[in-house]
Amino acid sequence: MDAARDQFDLAGACFLNAAFMHPLPRAAAAALGAYASARQGLPVNTQAARDRALSLFATMVGADADELAWVPSTTAGENMVVSALGLRQAGRIVTDELHFEGSLYLYQALAAQGRLVSIVPQREGAVTLEDMGDAIAPGTTLVAVSLVSAQNGFQHDLKRLCEIAHAQGALVFADIIQAAGATPIDLHDSGVDFACCASYKWLMGDFGAGFLYASRRAQKALKPMQQSYRQLQAFATHHFPFETPATDALSYRKREGAGALFELGTLSNSAAIAMCESLPLLLDLGIERIEAHRQPMLELLQRELTPARGFTPLTPRGNRSALVAFAAENAQQRFAGPLAEAGVHIQLHPHRLRISPSIYNDMADIERLLDVLR
């Protein structure tokens, strides 16, 4: 991993907040600069970059390309799944307290409209399979979770959760934005039906584009509620001179796969261009090696930031996701100034802090943070 640090230009900053927004690798930044320069002139065709990025992502997460669709964000993808399953009209949903807050807002809004929604509580920073199993009753339509919680880094046993849900006839959606690129994932092996992430976190892309996975089995249960030209393989108009007359103004042939179910309008070109550089970097390093590289850093944080020093661990010990979180009274008020002065970047909330090292960090960065928090 020593060479990985040279792939980034952090200008001396100690950046331990990749779970918020991952810095771009030098090669990705250069590719974006070249794209911006080209855009000053003739139109730039980015379809090849989009196809390459999708193929690389499919390799990384154990999916097939026709099971993936481009979406603008994780939240957009989750909403699309909810709509395509008819859950705005009927059905039963199970989620948990460690799911993304935007998702909890979605499901609480559906509950207010009369939908049946169960939110499984967390216990000491974890959501147990037993509690999830108790909540997933026969008749449950969808189980929706974050594979890795943005709140505290708790990681579900996705394969076992899918087995429990499928035994009751339920489908499973996983928000993988805090996992893809940082945690080993095999979507096929997990059995998950839907998964979604944007590219600006651990995939080291940019805002405005991400991937929605829908397994071939799950695609059969969907009735898409939105239509777009991006769902078409080909089309022809019939109302201009020399065109073949027809009753309808437009004839078309639909695509196959997830793209034909979910893709809508124009998406960020920059995200695809950046990922054509960042995803090969991640694949070359290996997600397992990335995971192993950060574990000593996370373990040191959990050893040092203890209740005796005023920090309450919120992440279960032994967790292997890319982030850890702690509660500390008045954390933002106490630490924002000293951290800024030291050039150390973490995620601060009024009474919580979250730390997420990446491939460019080492133990010296953790010691630099601890010096501020001592």
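(the above was protein one; protein two follows)
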Amino acid sequence: MKRFWYLTTAILLLSLALTACGGAATTAAPAAPKLKIAMLTSGPINDEGWNQTAYEGLQSLKAKGYEVANTEQVAQADQASDIDSYVNQGFNVVIGHGFEYGDALAAAAKKYPNVHFVQIGGIATGDNLASYVFKPGEGGYIAGVLASKLSKAGKWGFVGAVEIPTIKADEQSYEMALKEAKSDASVVAAYTGSWVDIPKAKEAALAQISSGVDVILANGDNANVGAIQAAKEKGGVLVIGWTRDQAHLAPDNVAMSIVQRVDVLLQDAVKSIENGTFKGGNFTVGFKEGISDISGFGAMVPADAQAAVKQAVQDVKDGKVKLPEIQG
């Protein structure tokens, strides 16, 4: 009987010991807090362009479980105070969407060394500030290859917003691609001076159409809506959109759009923060990195034109296209 008692006690003690060890081994370490991500945009988040693309990128992070917040139509004078407000609320990643956030983000990066800052479309730097700019000229060149296949009149248009160096580079590479296909290509360019003035962009596009243009590259954020409206009203005029797929605005007129994958860029940046590989600095991204892309083609784009565009995309990725240098 004693032998049985000793055996039972030993088994019980062993069981308790194993349970204790197992409990200690399976106790998970406290999970690191999810990043809280805030974004500032200078324009409205329903602009069918630059700012809406950013907002959709932010929402892709929300879908992954991150707490997000955004402020749209931020005035230049309010940038610093809006950043301070988000940091004070516990947001540890702050995104400024646009070149104009450079000074405010650089100052905030110094002020808050434990917060990560991201700029899209700029060149500001800091140990905890990463700035990304889309490779100037890539989208313009690819749009030009498509446009060269679509015009029946042999006259092309370009409607831009503000004449900053990056947009000018895309205008120049657009014209370069057209003249590679047709040495005497005639290109009419206009800048509205505004990212959001839809009527002014429409007016510029209508003037180009009246001069004989039948294909237009629109690179003007919210103002693109005006150029597309003009093409739709006149009929028979095609537009290449910019930043996001704009075909839904006029399916019979939008041949293709150059797409900037802000969602992928933001997800990559957040992943680098979480895994400790985040680096501050300037980073140029484009087709090779999978951050620029093309939308689907409209029904009016023939197979040979589609093939030419796909080849141009591959040539850009392979570094076979020498793009114009940015001036200024």
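Reviewer note on protein two: Residues 271 and 277 are 8 Å apart (CA to CA).
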